[in-house]
Amino acid sequence: MSGSKKKKITKAERLKLLQEEEERRLKEEEEARLKHEKEEMERLEMQRIEKEQWNRLEAKDLERRNEELEELRLLEGCFPEAEKLKRETRLLSQWEHYIQCDGSPDPSVAQEMNTFISLWKETTNETFEEVIEKSKVVLNLIEKLKFILLEISPCDLQDKDIIQYQGSILQLQELLHLKFNVATEILLRQASTLADLDSGNMEKIIKDENVTLYVWANLKKNPRYRSVRFSETQIGFEIPRILATSDIALRLLHTHYDHVSTPHLVSTPSKEDTSSVTEPVKDDVDNVEKAISKEVEEKSKQQQRGSHLIQEEEIKVEEEQGDTEVKMSSAEEESEAIKCKLEMKVLSETILAAQLLLVENSSEKPEFFEDDMVDLCQFTTLGGIYHLDILELPPQCKRVKGWMIVEICKEGLQKYTYPPETTEDLETENAFPPIEVTLEVHENVIFFEDPVVARWDAEGKHWRTDGISNVFYKPKERLVTFSLEAFGPLTLIQDAHLNMPYQSWELRPLDVNKVLLTVTTVFTEIQIQIKENLCMLSSIKLRDKKHISILEGKWMTPIPFIIALKEAGLNIFPTRYSHFYVIINNKVPLVEVKAYRQMALLSSAFAFGWSRWNLLCNSTKVVFKVKEHLTEECTETPNWAILMFSGDRAQRLKITEESEAFSEALKEETEFHSTLYHMLKDCASKEAMEKVRSSNCQFVNSVCHMLLSTRLLSYS
């Protein structure tokens, strides 16, 4: 019984156990402390080594910075060279136009434009076909004037020239529409002679590449004939009884261009924006010119003093004069070279200022718009303008004894007011219901969502969406049907930022001075080829299916190409207001511009691509993928490096696209550099760097312009 009992621990034993436990605890704490101290010492030593290495790399980078920036400046001389070639091309184009003597005016010469406009105003009784033919010349002139305002540097344009060009554009647009109205009146006077044998009414369709006219004249006034459909089309109207019994004509004039929207007359960089950059350099040029003239004057005085020496020393005088002339010639050549160098510097600074404006975000959002008003900074008109009009039928031509007699109304073409302003006792809603309209969407325009129909408010000078109901879109037939309360100019609109932000992008070389830019968005994948000073739409994929566009295979200079893509509904070109409507990864403008310029310089031998880490670094830095790309085999082995660039420092990062977290840690055995060019030069082949140095200046400039216009680093 007593053996089975548990032995009691004495007080001394308990104290001994507690003492042993305390000693064990203290020993563990000591071991932990020593381990922590060791780890901390190792960490501090590692930090010290890393800091020393970092300082060494920074010192090395600082030591060669001036040399690298000077080499980059020489390479970036391609931008002013490309601008000089543009100017020479414009002058050559003007000369070729002059010697052609084809009767068309030079749009940049005010006298020629005024004469052209005046002469066409005086021309009367033109048929619709004749006006259409003339419109080709007019539209070409308008296009040329817009390109002048967009392409020419603001320093080369005076304010009076800008006002002149914008005024000419407005005059031509207004005169062209007036001519179409007059030609429509002439056509409607002959409606009775063009009447259809079956219906007794007149129907006419005139098609052209820029304009399509649909006209229906109600000659029979049959109250049961209320469905108007133009032959061989689905385009037409469902008209109420009151119109079916009236002397009216229905006109649908579809212009494939937009001359209605309040013109944001070409936003060119202002002189104030560029003067702050270029003024110091211009002062240098002026100082050099003064020094040159002073030096030449002094040499001339020396020559004159030499000519007054006595006759006995004539031979000596001639020798001294010869030496003086050689010195003067040498001084003039040297000063001319300095002047040329400074002028190129002015041009370089002007180009940089203009490029900065391309990536500038507006600080103020456009003025407040009502719910039914269309904000043209957020939306864009597509497929041209549909001018829908109900017209009063003019007096008809009558044949009398071999003569054609017609009454000419002084007022010209008159619009029929529907619904009328005074409705007397009639119930407006029942007597004047909305008119059902069916329109065909332009075949060359892509709508990624159902188009929105908008009407032009002539008083407010803006587009509105009220007064339009029951909109139904058939994408396969490309037909849009809706009910319209009042006629006037109509258009189809789409969100201008549907394809922003981009999901990814890639820029890779194809051949010598030729690259492929691929931009992938939610709806589409767009591929653009760039060579020399030209761009071409290579392919479009819609929902993983190839889409055929009329623009494919057409080479154009960058600005016309960008405008053509926008007009086709393929807008991947942000404006200065786009950041108000799109969530973007905004970068400091100067960093963004420097990155695009240097990427363009390297694009003939290196491929660049989107990196997910660009979103995680701050606004003062950009991150992207890069690899050497000399042959097509390079695409099969994607060995991308991750580069980070802050405008004045480039470094290769240790992380990859598959890494779990973002880190700015430097890749082992790599260094800092002041430029992307020298960063890639460290690991590139001689062949690649030779291709970069021999790149065509126009090609580099075109690639840079496309990068600046798409803003891939901020909008993806």
UniProtKB/TrEMBL annotation:
Entry superkingdom: Eukaryota
Organism field: Saimiri boliviensis boliviensis
Pfam (any one): Casc1_N
InterPro entries: IC97/Casc1_N (IPR031826), IC97/Dnai7-like (IPR023247)
Full protein name: Dynein axonemal intermediate chain 7
GO cellular component: axoneme
Sorted UniProt keywords: Coiled coil
Family: Belongs to the DNAI7 family.
Region (Disordered): 296-331
GO molecular function: beta-tubulin binding; microtubule binding
